[in-house]
Amino acid sequence: MMKLAFILALAVALGGEAAAKPSKRPPLSPDSPYLTGKGCPHGWKNYGLCNGDSCQWANGRNYRCSHGSCVGKGGGDGACCGWPEITWEGGATCPNGGW
């Protein structure tokens, strides 16, 4: 019984020590490649934000992605999507594979 108490006390002490150490990894900056959402390319005329698997424009309407996808690397809710030209023909251009 004494050995069990010693082992538990040692485990708690070492676990607390490991938890108290600060992370050595610096915080991510906005330019970090580890962040998933892409910003909008320069020169786009109309743009919105990825909302699930579609592109939501300012009017609250969701448009399908005809180029690329709002799902996967570079996509995700809040990533930029839209229309490079002033046209509503077809669907939106979305980040994952669209540019």
Could you explain how this protein is built, in words?
Keywords: Signal. Residues 1-20 form the signal peptide. With 99 residues, the protein is of the alpha+beta class. The longest helix has 19 residues, at 2-20. It has helices at 2-20, 95-98, and strands at residues 46-51, 54-56, 62-63, 65-67, 80-83, 92-93. The model is unreliable at 28-35 (pLDDT under 50). The chain has a domain at 37-99. Strands 3-2-1-5 form a four-stranded antiparallel beta sheet, with no helix packed on it. It is built from two helices and six strands, in the order H-E-E-E-E-E-E-H. Helices cover 23% and strands 20% of the residues. A hairpin with a 5-residue loop joins strand 2 (54-56) and strand 3. It is rod-shaped, with a radius of gyration of 23 Å.
